[in-house]
Amino acid sequence: MNWLDQVKWDARGLVPAIAQDAQTGRVLMFAWMNREALEQTHLRGEAVYWSRSRHKLWHKGEESGHVQTVRDIRLDCDGDVVLLQVEQAGGIACHTGRESCFFSSLEQDHWVEADPVLKDPAQIYRQAHAPTPKGSAEAADSGAALERLYATIASRKHADPSVSYVARLFHKGEDAILKKIGEEATELVMAAKDGAPDKILYETADLWFHSLIALAQHGLTPQQVLAELERREGRSGLAEFAARPTSA
After folding, report:
1. How far apart are CA 187 and CA 208, in angstroms?
2. How many whole angstroms separate alpha carbon 123 and alpha carbon 125?
3. pLDDT tens digits for 225-246?
4. pLDDT per residue as tens digits for the range 31-58
5. Checking phi first, is residue 20 left (phi over 0); if not, alpha (psi -120 to 50) or beta?
6. pTM for this structure?
């Protein structure tokens, strides 16, 4: 029997994977693997995961440079969880610039950030993406720019409100965030009515920016939005609206 056949893949053909620091034993992150991701991890000697939001293989560190060199691959007793023991490049596994994705500690009745940010996410991803020729690579870099912006926004969620506009909105709460989205949407409508291209672009950027804050507030990501748009690709807008449940 092939070693991959001994893994108990779920109904989606996936298995949960935990990355652990090979030296300290600290759990760094959790992700998913499909058959190809696990096979590529074994062949490369570097962690490759499956992105459920982007529906593609994800070579850890392909954007940040923080690759995971795999020292050992283990399967649990039930055959349905994979454990990777890795050497983490840069000492940063989390997109927030922290050593581990598990940086929130439960204290009494709320979560507290127990680990420091080792490097600003904006700096990490800015360094990882050098200027590229115009064309298809430009579109890919635009997607990466969106991810970098979101990572920066997420990292401000519990920052000092006195030094960060985004942190101030998070601190004020959801009503303040939604109010800003409403304001920016109205300003975009007015810019479009005026027929001012530069103003339309400016107001659209503001609307997108504040929408990303709302996503982060609810633990959602731009990749999930893109996945939803991909789901709708090739489908009639009328059919999409008709399939939505009607409110009572």
Report:
1. 13
2. 6
3. 888 888 887 766 666 566 666 6
4. 999 999 999 999 999 999 999 888 899 9
5. beta
6. 0.54
Look up tokens 């127990």; give the residue: 114
Residue 73, phi then psi, degrees to nearest 5: -120, 125
User: Which token pair is 162?
Assistant: 């006195």
User: Residues 137, 147: contact at Cβ < 8 Å?
Assistant: no
Question: φ and ψ at 9, to 5 degrees?
Answer: -75, 145
